[in-house]
C-alpha cells in the first residue's frame, strides 16, 4: 500500500511517499481509507515540536474515513470514521474497535475524514468543559480554522448564538457559512463584540489561538463567563492575572481532548453516540473540507503554518 512517511523532524520537506507493507490486524479493525484529515498537530509532529514525539520513520495523521475490511463488531464494507494512532496518511489502517466510528449514510467519506479530531474536540470543549446552556453566546477565535468551523457547526446544531473572530473577509464568508450569527475582524474585535452584546459580554470564548489577544478574551466575558483554551496556533502562550477572574466570577479552562480520551475509556464512544443522531438527521451540518491529493500533504502543512487555510483540508488516498 501507499503511505506518506516522515523521515526526519524537518517539517513538511521530510515527507516521503513510499510503498510499505499493510499493517497487521491482530484482532483489531482493518479499515481501507478513502481520505485522511490534516490537523495542526500534524505540523508540530513533522517539526518534532509536539508533546508526543514519534519514532521515525512514522506516518502522520490521526483521523480518516473509509470502509471496514474486517474486524470485531463491524461488517465488511461498513462506512466508518477512524482515529488511527499509528498514522492515517496511508491507504490501510488498523484500530481498536472503540476508535472506529460508524457513519450515517448521508455523510460522504471525504466529509467524514474531517470529523473526528475537530468535532470531538469542539464537543468536549463546549459540552464538558464550558458546560454550555441553551441561549448562551459563544465567541470563537480562529473561527475559519478546522476547530473553529467545527465549533460553529456545533453551535448551530445546538441553538447557541455564535460570534466568529476572523482575520479577513474571505475567512468571514467561511465562518458565516459554518453557522456564525455575527462575524468580526481581528482588528478591533473586542469593541465590536461589546457593541454586539450590548456591553454584557459573552458566556464562552473558545480560543485555539492564544497569543496577545488572550487578555481581551477575558475582558470580553460576561458574568460567570468561561474562556476555554484549545491551543496556541498564534505562537504565544499567554499568562493569566488571576485577579481578573474575581471581577466577574470568570474562569479559564483547559480543553485537552486527547488526554481525556487516553484517561477515560469509553468517553469517545459516548461523544459519538451524541453526535451521530445530529449527523443523521441533518441538525449537524458539516462544512465540506477541501480535498487534496496525498502528494500535496506538505503544501497543506505549510498552509496551516502560515494560517492561510480556511476550513479543513483532507487528503485523498484513492
Q: What is the topology?
A:
Blueprint: E1 2-6, E2 15-19, E3 29-37, H1 40-46, E4 58-59, E5 63-70, E6 79-83, E7 92-95, E8 100-102, H2 109-112, H3 116-129, E9 137-140, H4 146-158, E10 161-166, H5 169-178, E11 182-185, H6 189-196, E12 202-207, H7 214-219, E13 221-229, H8 243-247, E14 251-254, H9 257-263, H10 267-280, E15 290-293, H11 297-306, E16 313-316
Parallel strand pairs: 9-10, 9-12, 10-11, 12-13, 13-14, 15-16
Antiparallel strand pairs: 1-2, 1-4, 3-5, 3-7, 3-16, 5-6, 6-8
Helix pairs in contact: 3-4
Question: Main traits of this protein?
Answer:
318 residues; alpha/beta; Quinone Oxidoreductase, Chain A, domain 1; Rossmann fold; 2 domains; six-stranded parallel beta sheet
Task: Please tell me about this protein's structure.
There is one protein chain. The chain has eleven helices and 16 strands. With 318 residues, the protein is of the alpha/beta class. The chain folds into two domains: 144 residues, Quinone Oxidoreductase, Chain A, domain 1; 141 residues, NAD(P)-binding Rossmann-like Domain (Rossmann fold, 3-Layer(aba) Sandwich). The chain starts with a strand and ends with a strand.
Amino acid at each position: 500500500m501507499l503511505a506518506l512517511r516522515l523521515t526526519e523532524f524537518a517539517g513538511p520537506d521530510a515527507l516521503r511517499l513510499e510503498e510499505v507493507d499493510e499493517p497487521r490486524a491482530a484482532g483489531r479493525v482493518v479499515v481501507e481509507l478513502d481520505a485522511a484529515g490534516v490537523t495542526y498537530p500534524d505540523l508540530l509532529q513533522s517539526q518534532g515540536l509536539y508533546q508526543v514525539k514519534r519514532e521515525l520513520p512514522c506516518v502522520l495523521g490521526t483521523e480518516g474515513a473509509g470502509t471496514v475490511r474486517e474486524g470485531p463488531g463491524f461488517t465488511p464494507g461498513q462506512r466508518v470514521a477512524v482515529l488511527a494512532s499509528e498514522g492515517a496518511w496511508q491507504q490501510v489502517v488498523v484500530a481498536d474497535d472503540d476508535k472506529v466510528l460508524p457513519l450515517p449514510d448521508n455523510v460522504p467519506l471525504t466529509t467524514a475524514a474531517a470529523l473526528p479530531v475537530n468535532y470531538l474536540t469542539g464537543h468536549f470543549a463546549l459540552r464538558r468543559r464550558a458546560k454550555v446552556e441553551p441561549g448562551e453566546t459563544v465567541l470563537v477565535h480562529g473561527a475559519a480554522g478546522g476547530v473553529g468551523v467545527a465549533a460553529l457547526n456545533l453551535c448551530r446544531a445546538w441553538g447557541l448564538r455564535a460570534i466568529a473572530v476572523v482575520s479577513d473577509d474571505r475567512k468571514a464568508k467561511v465562518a458565516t457559512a459554518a453557522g456564525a450569527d455575527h462575524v468580526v475582524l481581528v482588528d478591533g474585535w473586542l469593541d465590536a463584540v461589546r457593541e454586539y452584546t450590548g456591553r454584557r459580554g459573552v458566556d464562552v470564548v473558545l480560543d485555539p489561538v492564544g497569543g496577545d489577544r488572550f487578555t481581551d478574551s477575558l475582558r470580553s466575558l460576561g458574568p460567570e463567563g468561561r474562556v476555554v483554551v484549545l491551543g496556541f496556533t498564534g505562537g504565544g502562550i499567554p499568562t493569566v492575572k488571576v485577579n481578573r477572574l474575581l471581577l466577574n466570577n470568570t474562569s479559564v479552562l483547559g480543553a485537552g481532548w486527547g488526554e481525556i480520551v487516553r484517561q477515560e475509556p469509553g468517553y469517545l464512544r459516548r461523544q459519538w453516540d451524541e453526535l451521530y443522531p445530529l449527523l443523521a438527521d441533518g441538525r449537524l451540518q458539516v462544512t465540506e473540507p477541501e480535498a487534496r491529493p496525498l502528494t500535496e500533504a506538505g503544501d497543506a502543512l505549510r498552509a496551516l503554518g502560515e494560517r492561510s487555510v480556511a476550513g479543513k483540508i483532507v487528503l485523498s488516498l484513492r
